[in-house]
Amino acid sequence: MTENSSSLLSWIIFTPLLFGILLLCLPKKFEQYFRHLALVAGMANLLFAIKLWSNFDGAISTMQFVQSIPWIPKLGISYLLGVDGISLPLVMLTAIITPIAILGTWPHDLSKLKQEKFFVLMVLALQTGMYGTFLASDIFLFYFFWEIVLIPMFFLIGIWGGAERIYATIKFFLYTMVGSLLMLVAIWWMIYRYKQGFGVPSASFADLARVQYNFVDESWMKAIFSEQGLLFLAFTLAFVIKVPMVPFHTWLPDAHVQAPTLGSVFLAAVLLKLGTYGLMRISMPMFPEAAYYFSMMMMGFGVIGVVYGAFCAWGQSDFKKLVAYSSVSHMGYILVGLFSFNQVAIAGSLYQMINHGISSAGLFMVVGFLYERLHTRNLDDFGNIAKVAPLMAIGFMILTLSSVALPGTNGFVGEFTILFGTFQAQPAVALIAGLGVIFGAIYALKAYQRVMFGPLTNDHNKNVVDLSVREFLAMGVLAIFIFGIGFFPGSFFGKSDTTLSVYSQQLIEKVIHE
Amino acid sequence: MHTQIIESHIPLWIILLPLIGFLINGAILPIVYRGFAKTPANVAGGIATFFIATSFILAVKSFFTLQGIDGEAGGAILSYAFDWFNFGGLVIPFALRVDALSVVMTLIITGVGSLIHIYSIGYMHHDHAVGRYFSYLNLFCFAMLMLVLGDSLVILFFGWEGVGLCSYLLIGFWYSDTEKANAGVKAFVTNRVGDLGFLVGMFLLYRVFGTLTISEIIAALARPEMAAQVAPIATMITLALFVGATGKSAQLPLYVWLPDAMAGPTPVSALIHAATMVTAGVYMVARLNPLFELSVMTLSVVAHVGAFTALFAGTIAIAQTDIKKVLAYSTVSQLGYMFLACGVGAYNTAIFHLMTHAFFKALLFLGSGSVIHACSGEQDMRKMGGLKKHLPHTYVTMLIGSLAISGIPIFAGFFSKDEIIYSTIALPAGFSHLFFIGVLTAILTAFYTARMMSITFLGEERLSHHAKEHLHESPWSMVGPLYVLAALATLGGFFGVPHLLGMALGHIPHFLSNWLAPVIAIKHMPLVGEHLPWHEGVVMALSVVLAVASFWSGWKVFQNKFFISDFLSAIGPFHKVLANKYYVDELYDFLILSPLKRLSQWAAQIFDKLVVDGAVNGVGVWSRYFADRIRVIQTGDLQTYALAMIIGVFALVLTVYGMLNN
After folding, report:
1. What's the complex ipTM?
2. pTM summary value
3. Do the domain assignments include residue B83?
4. Residues within 8 A of B (CB atoms), A 119-148 only
């Protein structure tokens, strides 16, 4: 590997911050161009990401583009970056969603902006946090970026949010902090245990995974309070809050409803995946016995999430809340797939992360389009919009189809593989999760109908302007990915195959002794 | 037996052409005409028709290619495009396969489809969104063709869901009407219930076979040891798959969406909800017939569900006043016949009836569309009457369709329906009560069809003044397809001349059964043989007599309005139950939909807000409460702090001391 390629990941992480510094130097009179800067930063990162994609070797299962700089040598903590087949799609997702989200949520009236410099700065900082979390190969660095993500999100909701933004942002912040604190304790314990076992300190994922944590599976209590059980639960709690898993999900609808559209898009498309990525990167491979022991419970929570989330979505009258609960439902599939310990379902879970990222980003953008035009999110206020805004109707339809996992869209690729794999391992779980296929169709199509179809009851809807060029571009790119992945999943996920099969084989070997 | 396989791109083109048509009408023409509702009907319709007709030509070509292949095992044309899925041992090739069965389906879809496309040009002429209409129609053909040509069950499922989508879009085509939009959602969701069954069936199949490729599954089943291995689980697999079929093919208990689906434009009802999509379940069962053969129990379920649906829907059809509703319940009933045939093991007969039904039911639907078109959108038969002289072409062609569905000899329905009824007693899996249900349904069919014709075309004119002024026979683009379908509904039966007649007329073979033989093994009916002429002859004579009598009485009874109301009041409450379709929709709403809806409201508005989120906020409130209490110890008094410190240090020292000593 050349010197050049190994610093690529740092470029990806810090390019947004570099643009942030540039932004700080710009005078306020250029305020209306700050978004352009954010867009340029996003495009620049997309170029780096494309370079990463094309140079990534799909035949290697371990970390690539590794960069290592000692940071706190005494504790073995280093600035260690790397990318493998699991993080690559997520990095690509982030890189693709960022410019789309900025384009798709571009305010129509740039003169009404509020504290634009700080807003764009937070958006840039958020990206650094997200890339960093996906690319960190050191557990402390992972934690560092994980926490970084919170801060810009806190401000994005707290300053530019709706009427109850303070309540929502504090809830979001405290909720995730509670999880993170337990994770921090667990991290220190792992670092301590590595030093104890191997003599030299290290905090890299690869090293820490070599530690054998004690696990007793004689009874529930013993399993929970064994070393591995506690570590697993500490990490997993932090991650499932982020996912979010029912019953730890209530911060999500509040955060979504209050957040500005751009914040919602990032939250749904990328931030939630930090949780499932954490499960995949830490909870499962590092504590396999505990993960397997608790797998039924985790799948149970996942299944409950799928069905319960769908029901809650069905019962909403607030469009944005409905989309938020649909996220709860779709993320439930990922929990089911991961903890089924089946190779196909685990791969499906990774696909689902990407697919949900794409469709939820689009759906929140549609909510944003309508809110900007009609200043309402109440489903009863919409209706007959397909007549005046056909492009929006088509875009929303494509997203709805992806959301209901119609074959030919990306949604099917994830859901089918998860249900398929889970069925091979745990038929009953797959059967109940399959109910999501039905209820998902109900709430998604009902929502579509209430927004786009039906008679004209609200006179404001007569004058809804169709998508602008920018909005159309954003929707168009999403549509390309929706159908591209739907028809040719191999071209998009092929580079992850090796990593995924090695990952799941190792995982399954560790827990299933026959 | 070895199947001869020809590699070719033709199957791929057969499905791709309608997809191209969809893209042109859906994306390119709106750009050319600068707007979504601006494409002229002739352009949109012409393009859409061109692509589906080209597909038809390719289908005909494939048919002759297959015919050129000799041998008992037949042949197949295979198109392999790429691996759709390939991960963790799950390989799903995107492969299309034209064989004896799928070529018949393809010919029906593209042939009848082309006619309905042409018809639509006239029918949708005045609609503002005609471009959207034709793009959906082509998209439907793409999905439907994928359904029948897919060599993998997952590709079949792709088409299966795809046709569901198009059905949803076309039922709700006039979406500003809430009821129509609702009907679309109802169709999609009801189908989804079935689809879950289909998915489970696929997953189970994979567990047993390790593949989802249909030809591999069938080949594996040909080995006796594999068949024996599958047999114990076959009932579960086939029942799950059949649940999918009841959804798509509108059988009990999932048929409720189809009558509502009539909200869509009438040509759509003809194409999707009569001729093609709703037969997908029958096709699937016939396609997987070696699998279904393994479970006597499933076959019995299939036969009974089919028979009861046939009878049940037939009775409802008698009391409907909406011309399209009559045809809708009639379709449900006829689909029941097809499943009845499958259930007794006569899969080839099911396909035969599928084909003739596609002809005469498409004809009847298009004819009813012509009537509705002529009467300015009126669908209530009570407001029609005496249309015979105003719509002569529509009348003649619809009459032919009616005779065909009623099983009057020489028309297509006679051959296929008779074969089904005969199968129910001739085949070992048949039961005599199924035979009686079959006959009873045949009587009902002739009766309600004649009733529909009589009320619509005969008797006094009851049209509103406004409608009367605009009354006109449909243009040739609509009447033309009616005549072609009428010809098919007349002659289509000769693809399957019954044994008895074939012998009498000088060894005319049952063409369709022989053609399908590579896919569906011909069964030797045990009763056939010495008793043959007697049984078959009696059944045939019986059904002819009953059909004619029933048709005639329906025809006569409903000729004058006076008799209609008199007759209806005579059967009073019974009629009310039938007219209200046995209150099944209300029952489902009461038992399933309303409780679920209330549950969702409760979950969203109460449980999640108060219980789940209440617990979260409760934690917040409690921590604040304790913080307030604990705050008391922060007195600000230096001596108190010092005292606490000293106690703390002592405790610490003692602990460390104790630990060191251990």
Report:
1. 0.93
2. 0.92
3. yes
4. none
